[in-house]
Amino acid sequence: MQRYKCIISYDGSGFSGYQVQPNKRTVQIELEAVLSKMHKGGTIKVSASGRTDAGVHAKGQVIHFDSPLLIPEQRWKYALNSMLPEDISVLSVEKAAKSFHARFDAVGKEYRYVLRLSSERDPFQRKFAYQYPYPLNIGAMREASRYFLGGPHDFTSFCSAKTDVLDKVRTIETIDIIIEDDLLTFRFVGNGFLYNMVRILVGTLLEVGSGERRPEEIPAILEKKDRRFAGKTVPGHGLYLWEVFY
Question: Has residue 162 got a pLDDT over 90?
Fold first, then answer.
């Protein structure tokens, strides 16, 4: 039995998230269906670095699975891509140690969130960037973002109340705000992110940028450890799991 590590990308707009859900189309279901065909109906379970929600995309999701088939890595990549739907792509396949785990061995992740700063709708961007036609104070957002860096900080105020994770302490190393033409991209790099954490961070920074909050309010929101004090959760379709670090 050989363990394989794969990097995959997917357009999340056609999925109800990554993880298996009854009667819904998910990335994991598509992957395991293809692997089952390759193993003549046998069950092959796939583990990922983490879940993504409905509509959320991935540029560099990492998965692993075990297989008795002795196929060269490049042939694995070709075979999987020839059978997977067009909204999933396998970027690389490599052999991994039996002890490797896509989720538990990850030491950090990069997420990006994309806004489209225009009053005119672009039908070709509607599933890949959050339309935000309002003026923003970029300087204020950058100032506010600095309060999230370092730490570590308890991000209870910035994760969904539905999460079952008890330890909500995380370290964010980098937050960049990048503007190219009419697209604004938030780039977050940290040792881990909680359920909806990036989307709530972006929602809170947008409230700072629009003047609803002041940058210096951020430490108090962190201190409250209460989801009700942070900003709105922005839609999932602007979010990308960009890279996983090991």
Answer: no
